[in-house]
Specification:
CATH architecture of chain A: Orthogonal Bundle
Number of helices of chain B: 19
Distance between the termini of chain A: 30 Å
Strand order of the largest sheet of chain B: 6-9-10-3-11-12
Number of strands of chain A: 2
Number of domains of chain A: 1
CATH topology of the largest domain in chain B: Rossmann fold
Strand order of the largest sheet of chain A: 1-2
Order of helices and strands of chain A: HHHHHHHEEHHHHHHH
Helix content of chain B: 25-40%
Shape of chain B: globular
Structural class of chain B: alpha/beta
Largest interface: A-B, 33 and 40 residues
CATH superfamily of the largest domain in chain B: P-loop containing nucleotide triphosphate hydrolases
Oligomer: heterodimer
CATH class of chain A: Mainly Alpha
Radius of gyration of chain B: 25 Å
Strand content of chain A: under 5%
Shape of chain A: globular
């Protein structure tokens, strides 16, 4: 086989998610009363980017065959923090941004330490830490409020040259600065290896623990970037329990839609980004058709079921039934 | 050999797993520029020896010296760093990563802190070429490759680490003949380059072609060491035999039953693991499956039990063809089959659940009336079983995981006996249990057969096959190579046919009687 065919096979999940996004967005913008205009794209991008950051965070952990049920709460906590700190002069704002991102890193590192060194199951550990993160958010913002440096917020949620949504550019920068180095680093590969087969990775002398720890820590950072952007869009901080939880659940859906295997070892954050954007578009599709918003969860659920079922076909090829349970 | 200074030496290495002694004061000396073959039966301690060398397990006692300096390895990575690289029997490849990723996994080439993919590709291509496997694309995912290709990747991966000592543990078992020839060329070249190679194989012809020096292991000890070619196959088999204990086996019935076979297979094949197997088991008969570990015995039992898909050939019950689609179908109705699995902890028991619950699982349909379990009937049956098998437990309502290994195994067997099966498949049921319980199981097996059950019994312990079975079928590469009957079941015959030694078998049988 030629190189490009392997490349295609490697990127199949990502390309599929990209395809779904294109189709969904084409239907969306074609039926939008305003049509395909920079304005429509900007609004869609701003909504989608939030989930995209959280989904990237989820991807890092899922690659190690774990799951992070606290990403939505890190997202909420950092939103509340940003509504206190990211304000004032340029220097103060910069310090605030760093503090928010540092908090995200710390949250992720705590998750990683508990799961890897405390040997707790990721699901339980992150449910517990998620509750803690939300508790802290509630202490910071018992009632919604606060504000943000509006110049920075408008700059990052507006458009460059009146055309390109700034939030998409920010997403691209994060991909280049966080994801690409991670996926090409030795520790990133260790995270993949640990997710695919921890025993084989151990036998091959791969630094499993450090790889997984880095994945959890960076997941915290990415969720914090999401929290920061939420503040830029809303100008306030709010410890919203339902919203935090739904971001967690939607991030898992986006990850699966983006071709990342929940069994670990396979997939890319870029796929998850397309998955997140597609998921958001599916959710918005009903509005352009003037359906009752009551239909949205049902519709979104059915589309999601169809999309994830595509991945189950491999089971029909299994010849030893015991492999179903592996 | 020839006065050269040893590269690596192990002295007085011992290792125990719980109460089981895997290595007992074992010694080994490895010289550069030679191929050293390690021989021994299943469970003779070869695998443990290698794991100690490769840093996978730590020895309880003993010393290892490399270049005259004492060393100890805390992890496989540490052993790799010292130049000891092992190709394990259980593959150490990561399925979701590409071939190139896997080859460089322990020390990827880096540029600016990131993995240099061009350099990685180059290293992978070189290593594949050195291993004689340039047909494998470096970008292919390991999980998409067939077993024989994966084995070649494993060899390439080991070579890419530039080892000084290369250990091959049954590395050719999954390879095609053409690949074996290529690998042999590679190994001979490595020897001339001054590497030390340790070669573990059950294939006598391979050892004859490759080895410079041989060491035989038995019961965790090195019992003989000699230059290759100085002993006949027959003498080597003698060295591998020999055990310090013998079991008390129940007497076998005389005369062969002429009844219709209860279980019969005709030309059964599956994937590349089972090859045209035909066999019969009659009521009251104990038929053994012999051969080296992993020659298709497990798959054969799974095939009968309805676990494998895409089976070719025929399975007959009471002379009538049936198609068994699942373990439920196999155990219910008129088939009445039971499989005592190999790994009781994962396939036999729900460890955190109680003894009572575990005992009832397979027979729930018989104990339930209208979907509700009849507690009284359950209790009666459980009492019967606990009495019959003499299960020692502090109570029926404690977790089964708290029982000793032998008693856990009794629970697995009792669970199936609660259905009164007509056909009983046993997959190495005495592995890791004490001698006393083993004897009880032998008695039980004969008792069940006398009561009319048809028993198919796979064991890795040759003594058991000799002591328990009316007939033994020896498997090699997924095919039945030989059938031994009655007095013809000797350790000599079993080992010789398990190794698939060609040539004068009668001479070997003769030797056993001396």
């Amino acid at each position: 086989m030629k190189d490009w065919r392997y490349l295609l096979a490697e990127q199949r999940g990502t390309l599929l998610a990209f395809g779904i996004l294109i189709v969904m967005f084409a239907i969306y913008s074609a039926n939008h009363p305003a049509g395909f205009t920079p304005n429509v794209v900007q609004t869609a991008a701003n909504k989608g980017v939030l989930l995209a950051f959280v989904a990237m965070a989820q991807t890092l952990v899922v690659i190690t065959a774990g799951i992070d049920l606290s990403v939505g709460m890190i997202f909420t906590l950092t939103n509340c923090m940003a509504s206190w700190l990211v304000i004032g002069t340029g220097l103060e704002t910069a310090f605030g941004v760093l503090a928010v991102l540092g908090t995200g890193l710390l949250c992720g590192a705590v998750n990683g330490a508990i799961v890897i060194y405390g040997r707790l199951q990721p699901i339980v550990a992150t449910i517990a830490t998620g509750a803690v993160f939300f508790g802290l958010a509630l202490l910071l913002r018992p009632v919604p409020g606060g504000s943000v440096n509006e110049d920075l917020a408008d700059f990052l949620t507006g458009r460059f040259f009146g055309l390109v949504p700034a939030s998409l550019v920010a997403l691209l920068v994060v991909v280049l600065v966080v994801w690409v180095p991670f996926s090409r680093s030795e520790l990133g590969r260790a995270a993949y290896a640990a997710g695919s087969s921890e025993t084989a990775a151990y036998m091959s002398g791969v630094p499993i623990r450090r790889g997984k720890f880095l994945a959890y820590t960076l997941a915290g950072l990415l969720a914090a970037i999401g929290g920061l952007f939420l503040t830029f869009f809303t100008y306030t901080g709010e410890a919203a329990y339902a919203s935090g939880n739904s971001y967690t659940l939607f991030s898992i859906a986006a990850v699966v839609l983006g071709g990342v295997s929940l069994f670990g070892g396979k997939g890319s954050a870029i796929g998850a980004i397309f998955g997140a954007l597609a998921f958001r578009t599916i959710g918005d599709l009903l509005f352009v058709f003037d359906f009752d918003p009551l239909w949205q969860p049902l519709f979104q659920g059915v589309i999601l079921l169809i999309a994830v079922s595509l991945g189950a076909f491999a089971l029909f090829r299994v010849r030893n039934r015991l492999e179903w349970f592996l | 050999m020839d006065g050269a200074a040893p590269l690596f030496r192990m002295e007085g290495i011992s290792k125990r797993y719980g109460g089981v002694r895997a290595l007992e004061k074992a010694d080994l000396t490895v010289t550069a520029g030679g191929i050293h073959a390690i021989l021994g039966e299943n469970g003779a301690g070869k695998s443990t020896l290698i794991k100690v060398m490769a840093g996978v397990v730590a020895p309880d006692e003993g010393t290892m010296t490399l270049d005259g300096r004492e060393v100890s390895f805390a992890s496989p990575a540490a052993a790799n760093q010292a130049g000891i690289v092992c190709i394990f029997q259980e593959l150490s490849l990561i399925p979701e990563l590409s071939v190139a990723d896997n080859i460089v996994i322990s020390d990827p080439p880096k540029r600016f802190g990131m993995i240099d993919r061009k350099a990685q590709r180059r290293i992978a291509e070189e290593a594949l070429a050195r291993a004689g496997a340039s047909d494998i694309h470096p970008r292919a995912l390991v999980k998409d490759l067939p077993l024989s290709r994966r084995q070649m990747v494993e060899i390439a991966k080991a070579l890419a680490r530039k080892p000084r000592i290369l250990i091959l543990d049954e590395a050719t078992s999954a390879l095609t003949a053409a690949d074996v020839a290529k690998v042999f060329e590679v190994l001979k070249r490595l020897r001339s380059e001054g590497l030390a190679l340790l070669y573990i194989s059950h294939r006598m012809n391979e050892i004859a072609e490759l080895a410079d020096h041989c060491t035989v292991f038995r019961n965790g000890r090195n019992v003989a060491s000699y230059p290759a070619g100085s002993k006949s196959d027959n003498e080597v088999v003698e060295l591998m035999i020999g055990r310090e204990y013998s079991h008390i086996f129940p007497p076998k019935p005389v005369g062969v039953s002429a009844a219709t076979p209860v279980l019969e297979a005709r030309n059964l094949s599956w994937a590349d693991r089972l090859d045209n197997i035909s066999l019969t088991v009659r009521a009251g008969e104990v038929v053994g499956l012999g051969g080296l570990d992993g020659q298709g015995q497990r798959e054969l039992l799974l095939a009968f039990f309805g676990v494998l898909r895409g089976l070719r050939g025929e399975v007959l019950i009471d002379g009538k063809p049936v198609s068994i689609a699942s373990p439920t179908a196999a155990s219910h109705g008129r088939i009445g089959m039971a499989l005592i699995p190999e790994d009781r902890k994962t396939e036999g028991l729900m460890l955190p659940m109680t003894v009572r619950e575990n005992l009832s699982f397979a027979a729930l349909d018989r104990l339930a009336k209208g979907g509700i379990i009849d507690r009284a009937a359950e209790q009666r049956l459980i009492d019967d079983m606990v009495g019959l098998l003499a299960i020692k437990t502090a109570g029926l309502d404690i977790p089964v995981g708290a029982l000793s290994g032998g008693n856990q195994q009794k629970v697995v067997i009792a669970k199936w006996l609660m259905r009164q099966p007509r056909i009983i498949l046993l997959n190495d049921p005495t592995r890791g249990i004490d001698v006393g319980t083993k004897q009880e199981l032998y008695q039980l097996m004969r008792k069940l057969a006398d009561a009319g059950a048809a028993i198919l019994f796979y064991s890795t312990d040759y003594d058991e096959l000799i002591g328990c079975c009316d007939r033994v079928l020896v498997l090699y590469d997924g095919a039945v190579k030989r059938e031994l009957v009655g007095d013809g079941i000797t350790e000599h015959a079993l080992i010789a046919s398990a190794l698939n030694i060609h040539g004068d078998n009668s001479r070997i049988d003769l030797g056993a009687k001396v």
